[in-house]
Amino acid sequence: MTNNFSSISTSSRSLHVQVARSIARRILSGELAQGSLVPNEMTLCEQFGVSRTALREAIKLLTSKGLLESRPKIGTKVVHRAYWNFLDAQIIEWMDGLSDPEVFCSQFLGLRRAVEPEACALAAIHATPEQRQELSEIFQEMVKVTENFNQAKWTEVDMSFHQVIFNSTNNDFYLPFGNILTTMFKTFIMHSSKEGDVCLNEHRLIYEAIMAGDSAKAKAVSLDHLQSAKHHLPET
Amino acid sequence: MTNNFSSISTSSRSLHVQVARSIARRILSGELAQGSLVPNEMTLCEQFGVSRTALREAIKLLTSKGLLESRPKIGTKVVHRAYWNFLDAQIIEWMDGLSDPEVFCSQFLGLRRAVEPEACALAAIHATPEQRQELSEIFQEMVKVTENFNQAKWTEVDMSFHQVIFNSTNNDFYLPFGNILTTMFKTFIMHSSKEGDVCLNEHRLIYEAIMAGDSAKAKAVSLDHLQSAKHHLPET
DNA sequence: ATGTTTTTTTTGTATTACAATTGATAAAAC
DNA sequence: GTTTTATCAATTGTAATACAAAAAAAACAT
């Protein structure tokens, strides 16, 4: 995690990403109907005031996420919603402001409740010594932050905690949930969480179960954590 | 699902997708190390014998999936594995032949066991009348195929069955699993499944529980289904 | 009517040129 | 000697133009 570029937001300044975001939001909001043709390249170039190069790179980006599909002579179509990859951090970011945050978060929780307890169970079994060490350090940090409470710091360390757990499953298919969860946090969940201490205890239970290699308990306490009150309403 | 273009494979003939696939496989296999710089654009253009246009569209596609990250003057880096989006059908396709299929399938099953039972539970509650109708028709088809057994037909209808269930959750975050499962089937799971009839009964239980709106039972029988023997080893 | 050829529209690919970013280097100021 | 500032150079970013390829639509022939 050390030698990656500063952050995703850096490249968001690039023109084709801005164009992609704009088109994506038209699709995600339903302004561009599923199955309909978007305007042809030259028209879009004029609409956005960019070159075909930039526009096409934008379209390729959206095609890769399952939103668009192009064919010569026909044009570019918005594909059916069932093919949109909502398990993609960038798409989740782009949903900001398009969907009722409460509904969206509650849907996400519907998936998270299925995935995260199992991730904890797997981490309890498969975490390497290095990963256990890392988790341990993060939990230490968590304790420290709680003693001298700081909202920003706590969100940061909370995200790291969950991310390390997903990594510790050592299962490729669980890895993406780390980013997805982080993105959901940053984009939608800005809840004030005054009950930092309560949370700490819940995290402690998860932490200890994983370190002890007790997968059943890890799963159970994680599920408890996700059913605690604060997950139900994202207080803006 | 009616008015999409013939299939994804059509566009795979396009040059930038071929290039993307080739680079992706070098990354996924580890031949291009995480954090390392890939050769600059002109070098890659020469290596692949394509124009910068095509090459850059390929890179944009891979960037969108979390495999690459570019910056002016610096170059293009392979990002850390934790950011690769394994929950992407195209990446899963590209893994073909790069990973031990048995390990890969077993990892996938590790996620599927978490997600699909919950999807069945949600479908039992949230499926619309139209979706219940669709599920019903597909199950009818399933019965018919079993009576006059045909491997290809059965795989087809099996995929549809599970896809409709994910759609019937009416939860955006469950939608992508339909494609992912289908892709896993097509790419890795070619098991002969002589026990088609046994499976039919398992599917019947799932089908009936969902139609009855019994979420707890739907979840339970789905989990049973996923723990039945044939899921453990993909017989090539 | 039906099959075949031509036309036309749209995306796909190539090429060239220049702009913007930024690390590295060198120069200047303190 | 250290720090700041300016310059340089390498790489990606953007633009513009031209032509190729695909495929639907139209025109044509049978």
How would you describe this structure to a colleague?
- 2 copies of one chain form a homodimer.
- Chain A has 236 residues and is mainly alpha-helical.
- Chain A folds into 2 domains: 75 residues, Arc Repressor Mutant, subunit A (Orthogonal Bundle); 131 residues, GntR ligand-binding domain-like (Four Helix Bundle (Hemerythrin (Met), subunit A), Up-down Bundle), CATH 1.20.120.
- Helix content of chain A is 64%, strand content 4%.
- Chain A has 11 helices and 3 strands; from the N terminus they run ααβααββααααααα.
- In chain A, strands 1-3-2 form a 3-stranded antiparallel β-sheet.
- In chain A, β2 and β3 form a beta hairpin.
- In chain A, α2 crosses α4.
- The longest helix of chain A is centred in the middle third of the chain and has 26 residues.
- The radius of gyration of chain A is 20 Å and the shape is elongated.
- The N terminus of chain A is likely disordered.
- The structure holds a DNA duplex (30 and 30 nucleotides).
- Chains A, B: Keywords: DNA-binding, Transcription, Transcription regulation.
- Chains A, B: This is FadR family transcriptional regulator.
- Chains A, B: It comes from Marinomonas colpomeniae.
- Chains A, B: It holds the Pfam family FCD.
